[in-house]
Amino acid sequence: MNTVDYSLNDFLAYIMIYAADADFVITPEEETHIRTVVGDNAYNQMLDLFDSHNDKETQEFISMLRKQYVNEDSNKDLLKIVKEVFLVDGYFVASEKALYEALKHLV
Prior knowledge:
Elements: H1 8-20, H2 28-38, H3 40-52, H4 55-69, H5 72-87, H6 94-106
Helix pairs in contact: 1-2, 1-3, 1-4, 1-5, 2-3, 5-6
């Protein structure tokens, strides 16, 4: 998998979609929030890519792009962005909490 073709904005879109899908439903509020942050084009492209990935491919993709775009300083910002996605629909359910904890170790 070649990560050179993906921008930081693409990475943000992908990880935000991953977060929004933690409870297996991307709500309209979550979609609107993600589109506002990354734009329609990045959202649509990364949603298509996300939908084509299985769990292992998703983790590999995030891990590879993390190496390219995330450092110690930006890690906290990324986790904050992810948590905002979780909270945008007014709920922070168990599956989202579990994913948030896993992302702390993945990113």
